[in-house]
Automatic annotation (TrEMBL):
Domain Amidohydrolase-related per the UniProt entry, residue ranges: 68-418
Organism of this sequence: Methylobacterium terricola
Keyword tags: Hydrolase
Pfam families from the UniProt entry: Amidohydro_1
Name of the featured protein: Amidohydrolase family protein
Length: 471
């Protein structure tokens, strides 16, 4: 007979256990009385509670009344080394990477890169993300510093290595860049928390040879090739002026658009480009909060999904709150497209839950690793408290999670079967000490960076408006 144990961090620290929640989020939706057996970092069994317990009498059973067990969320596009400067970009016009992010990252040494990435990893885990895709840093030094930080925090990371050879940070000799890219792809052992990826910041900062070579290497290695594409009007126009093609058209012509390609944003896309995306198998990281905060347009994510384009949800480093990201994904589609067409559903709640979990895993090349609760996959999962006023009474749990879910409901975050956060805080390292260290270093790092802001901070902005007729 299996042993019943109380829910808590000690129970989740066992080498194996059976979770018995009221609801389990499976690909077909929330299912009652479905148990999840976790062992050796993976989901060992899944099914009706009594059947799982009978098959695995060696594992302790953890009853989870009024709780949901669901896959951890996937952040399909992040910038882990930008966590020191988030609010510096608030209220700023588009293309802030040129005036804020490139200067900031260029001023970071390895110690600050580690602290920035670990702080971002903590934010992600608190928001329910068990996997993030880092687009690559422009900071000098070893990109492995980011891997050390995310692994120490317990976060799964698809880690980009920037391969720009025409500018935009880390430019250099193409052959040397490709040799370093090969070393990056071979550096991290299979089965670990770090999954190597290659990146070009934007297509304009890489030669045709580099774009094609990097994409080919990723296809051969089973890795993801990342680039920002068609994000801002100025970027589209730069590409048209320089190459006579829009960025996605250009990627297609040079052989860099394919099943290994993950495009960040793709907000300004033509019908022809959508057809190219659908035909190529390329995926898109849809970043709805970035659209709301500093974008020129909203990616037609529902159109993409309808065409079979893999779509994941990304924060773009804005705020790492998973449930709010799901809400933003639906809201942006509703405001940008649904209102004009009378679409009152805008994909329904399930569309955005899938994009944040299984769909996101497909988009970032990890469908065989995470994103779904299924035997053999990594035990990357969340335990969510449903006994909250916002969800009582409950009529449609997928919609409720999208619109009413809150990160405060996340009681436990497990990555690779290991408890990483308990009620918002890590159990095996000192997060508050990290925050103190960040506070001590961040001001100096930001002051040393040649950042150019268009607007002053909000208090100075407000003071400048006093006495005027403007609000």
């Amino acid at each position: 007979m299996t042993l019943a144990v109380s829910f808590g961090p000690d129970a989740l620290a066992a080498p194996g256990f059976i979770l018995e929640p009221d609801y389990t989020l499976l690909p077909e939706g929330p299912v009652r009385a479905c148990a999840v057996a976790v062992e050796a970092g993976r989901i060992a069994d899944l099914g009706p509670g009594a059947a799982v317990a009978a098959r695995r009498p060696d594992l302790p059973r953890i009853a989870l009344p009024d709780r949901l067990v669901m896959p951890g969320l996937i952040d399909a596009h992040h910038h882990l080394t930008q966590s020191f400067g988030k609010a510096l970009a608030f209220g700023e016009p588009s293309e802030i990477f040129r005036r804020i992010w490139v200067p900031l990252e260029g001023s970071l040494d390895d110690e600050i890169v580690h602290a920035s990435a670990k702080l971002a990893a903590l934010e992600s885990l608190r928001g329910g993300f068990t996997t993030v895709v880092d687009a690559g840093t422009r900071a000098a030094g070893d990109v492995g510093t980011i891997a050390h930080a995310t692994e120490a925090a317990g976060l799964r990371c698809v880690l980009g290595f920037i391969c720009n050879d025409l500018g935009g940070g880390k430019a250099g000799d193409p052959d040397a860049i490709l040799a370093a890219a090969d070393a990056h792809l071979a550096r991290f052992p299979a089965g670990g928390l770090t999954h190597p990826s290659l990146a070009v910041s934007i297509p304009e900062v890489a030669s045709d040879r580099m774009l094609g070579a990097v994409a080919a290497r990723c296809r051969e290695a089973g890795a993801v090739f990342q680039t920002h594409a068609n994000e801002h009007l100025v970027a589209v126009e730069r590409s048209l002026v320089a190459r006579g093609e829009r960025p996605i058209e250009h990627l297609d012509r040079v052989g860099a658009l394919g099943p290994a390609t993950l495009l960040a944003h793709a907000t300004l896309v033509t019908p022809s480009e959508l057809a190219r995306l659908a035909g190529s198998g390329a995926a898109v990281a849809y970043n709805p909060v970035a659209t709301a905060w500093k974008g020129n347009a909203a990616a037609p994510a529902l159109d993409m999904i309808a065409r079979g384009i893999p779509v994941g949800l990304g924060t773009d480093g804005t705020r790492s709150d998973g449930f709010r990201l799901l809400d933003a994904a639906e809201t942006v589609q509703r405001l940008a497209f649904g209102l004009a067409t009378g679409d009152s559903s805008c994909g329904g709640g399930w569309t955005w839950l899938e994009a944040g979990t299984a769909g996101g895993a497909r988009a970032v090349g990890l469908a065989g690793v995470t994103g779904t609760l299924a035997p053999g996959l990594a035990a990357d999962l969340l335990v969510v408290d449903l006994a909250v006023p916002e969800l009582r009474p409950s009529w449609d749990l997928p919609w409720e999670l999208v619109r009413l879910g809150n990160r405060d409901q996340i009681e436990a975050v497990l990555v690779a079967g290991r408890l990483r956060l308990w009620r918002g805080w890590p159990i095996d390292w000192d997060a508050r000490a990290l925050m103190e260290a960040v506070a001590a270093r961040a001001e100096t790092a930001v002051a040393a960076a040649p950042i150019q802001r268009v607007h002053p901070v909000s208090s100075m902005h407000r003071a400048g408006r006093r006495g005027s007729s403007l609000p």
